[in-house]
């Protein structure tokens, strides 16, 4: 056998680590990565500290998890301490054996980790400024300024403290304390979202002593939220679960709920799939590259669609999970199923958006008598008034010599619908204009209803109850069934002919 010549070419530590700093973490995503480790270590209490001291500011994460022995801690500090190929406990949130280091280095140049178990408290530190060109030397113990933080860990029976100092990516020359506080808010909102399922159950995260409240992307408790049954899909790498939601229209929410439900990046940006891995949110709103013909973009009309998608950590490879735990791509085996579910949810969301939350709900077999219909032809779309709509039909039947004039009037209305205007106003206001008597006083709606009711009974010879039934299926009165219920025989006498 020919002996292959090899040379040992280890990476240059200082250069290597500098490159790893550019993986693209934000402070919030980096902290989420640290908290992943706390959760995986069984912690139910995590305290974050943002300590402002100009250039000497620091951030720490303290958990009451099971902690690490000296040997485990040294191994945890090693880059690539565990291979991504190793199978993990189903509840483990880690994969690459890198997060602790890469997340920390992305924000600061000095990382101290102290951990306490029955075997005692141990502390090690990476300092990028002291990293030699040819050696990975890990320091023992904390910095002088870091010493003070160890007290907090010492007060616990077991747990881990991660401390970031020399925050060169957070505190720049012109940074102020206010910037630091603003960053704390951003982090709070992000963690409230990423860990909302833990925060609602087994975990407390405090940020400078204040507990973080979970943010539920689906407004699951709200009666006007539409949710599909959860669907389980078996794939070769594990079972995934999907549940589709359409959130209530703005008109159905109070101002505060509407603002909060928007999420950290706003309504339009937060539509789409919410991908969870072991109940931890990886992707907060994305159409995952799905689409018919071309990839779906995030548009206003679909902003109320949010779909929960749960994947197990056995599927990491299939879903191409990245080190930052911020990307997940559906494997081909599930794409068509997800596409179908998403398509349906997007359509529902579009309807809720367009009808301002007033989803048409009449008996299943009955069709709604609409006032407008859409005509499609090779030259495009046209909106036409439907002459079968009772309010129009009644007039036309009774029009006599005015028939042609009424038809001419309807044509003029059809040909001058302010389509462009409606389109621009919708885009600007992020809402469709009001229709269907939305926001009008009941008296005004009642007046119109009574006239129609009288005509249906008087001219069409319907019984009062049949006329009411008919109105319930007629746009836009299907939205006002309580006012229809109030119509009686007496109403007929009250309405002036
Ligand atoms: N707070 C903690 N408590 C207990 N053990 C921890 C803690 N943080 C890290 N560890 C240990 O250190 C190891 C390395 O952590 P690190 O975040 O670098 O990688 P990982 O979590 O294994 O994978 P990933 O790169 O996907 O995050 C973990 O697997 C875990 O065993
Ligand atoms: Mg990790």
Please provide a written account of the structure.
It is a single chain. The chain is elongated and about 100 Å long. Strand 7 (204-207) and strand 8 form a beta hairpin. The strands form 3 sheets. An 8-stranded mixed β-sheet has the order 5-4-3-6-2-1-7-8, sandwiched between helices. Strands 9, 10, 11, 12, 13 and 14 form a 6-stranded mixed β-sheet that branches. Strands 15-16 form a two-stranded antiparallel sheet. The chain is built from 16 helices and 16 strands. The protein has helices spanning 13-20, 27-40, 70-77, 99-107, 144-154, 177-194, 196-199, 255-262, 332-354, 390-398, 403-415, 419-429, 442-458, 464-472, 481-485, 489-494, and strands at residues 45-51, 58-63, 110-117, 120-127, 139-140, 159-165, 204-207, 210-211, 226-227, 231-235, 238-246, 272-277, 280-286, 305-311, 372-377, 380-385. The model is unreliable at 359-365 (pLDDT under 50). Helix 2 packs antiparallel against helix 4 (99-107) and helix 2 packs across helix 6 (177-194). It folds into 3 domains: 17-211, 2-Layer Sandwich (Heat Shock Protein 90), CATH 3.30.565; 226-354, Ribosomal Protein S5, domain 2 (2-Layer Sandwich); 372-494, no CATH class. The chain is α+β, with helices and mostly antiparallel strands and 497 residues long. The protein binds adenosine-5'-triphosphate and magnesium ion (MG). Residues 33, 36-38, 41, 63, 65, 67-68, 76, 81-82, 94-101, 160, 323 line the site of adenosine-5'-triphosphate. Magnesium ion (MG) binds at residues 33, 36-37, 94, 99-100.
């Amino acid at each position: 056998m020919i002996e292959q010549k090899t040379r040992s070419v280890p990476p240059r530590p200082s250069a290597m680590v500098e490159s790893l700093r550019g993986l693209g973490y934000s402070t919030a995503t980096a902290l989420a990565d640290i908290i992943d480790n706390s959760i995986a270590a069984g912690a139910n209490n995590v305290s974050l500290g943002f300590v402002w001291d100009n250039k000497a500011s620091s951030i720490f994460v303290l958990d009451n998890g099971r902690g690490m022995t000296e040997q485990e801690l040294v191994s945890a500090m090693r880059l690539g301490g565990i291979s991504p190929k190793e199978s993990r406990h189903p509840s483990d949130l880690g994969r690459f054996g890198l997060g602790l280091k890469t997340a920390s280095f992305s924000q600061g140049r000095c990382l101290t980790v102290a951990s306490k178990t029955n075997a005692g408290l141990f502390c090690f530190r990476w300092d990028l400024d002291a990293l030699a060109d040819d050696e990975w030397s890990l320091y023992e113990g904390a910095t002088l300024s870091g010493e003070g933080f160890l007290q907090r860990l010492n007060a616990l029976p077991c747990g881990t403290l991660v401390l970031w100092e020399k925050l060169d990516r957070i505190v720049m020359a012109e940074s102020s304390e206010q910037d630091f506080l603003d960053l704390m808010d951003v982090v709070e909102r992000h963690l409230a979202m990423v860990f909302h399922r833990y925060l609602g159950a087994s975990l407390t995260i405090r940020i400078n002593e204040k507990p973080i409240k979970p943010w539920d992307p689906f407004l699951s408790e709200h009666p006007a939220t539409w949710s599909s049954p959860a669907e389980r899909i078996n794939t070769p790498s594990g079972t995934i679960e999907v549940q589709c939601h359409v959130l209530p229209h703005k008109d159905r929410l109070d101002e505060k709920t509407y603002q909060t439900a928007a999420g950290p990046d706003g309504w339009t940006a937060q539509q789409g799939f919410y991908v969870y891995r072991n109940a931890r949110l990886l992707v907060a709103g994305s159409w995952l590259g799905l689409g018919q013909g071309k990839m779906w973009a995030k548009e206003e009309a679909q902003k109320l669609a949010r779909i929960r998608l749960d994947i197990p950590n056995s599927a990491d490879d299939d879903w191409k999970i990245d080190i930052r735990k911020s990307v997940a791509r559906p494997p081909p085996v599930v794409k068509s199923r997800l596409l179908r579910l998403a398509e349906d949810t997007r359509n529902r969301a579009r309807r809720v958006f367009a009808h301002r939350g007033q989803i048409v709900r009449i008996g299943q077999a009955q069709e709604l008598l609409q006032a407008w219909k859409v005509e499609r032809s090779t030259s495009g779309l046209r909106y036409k008034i439907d002459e079968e709509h009772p309010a129009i039909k009644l007039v036309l039947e009774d029009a006599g010599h005015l028939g042609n004039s009424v038809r001419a009037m309807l044509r003029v209305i059809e040909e001058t619908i302010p389509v462009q205007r409606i389109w621009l106003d919708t885009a600007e206001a992020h809402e469709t204009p009001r229709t269907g008597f939305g926001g009008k006083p009941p008296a005004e709606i009642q007046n119109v209803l009574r006239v129609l009711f009288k005509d249906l009974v008087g001219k069409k010879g319907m019984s009062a109850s049949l006329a009411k039934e008919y109105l319930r299926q007629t746009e836009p009165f299907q939205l006002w069934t309580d006012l229809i219920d109030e119509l009686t025989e007496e109403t007929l006498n009250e309405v002036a002919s």
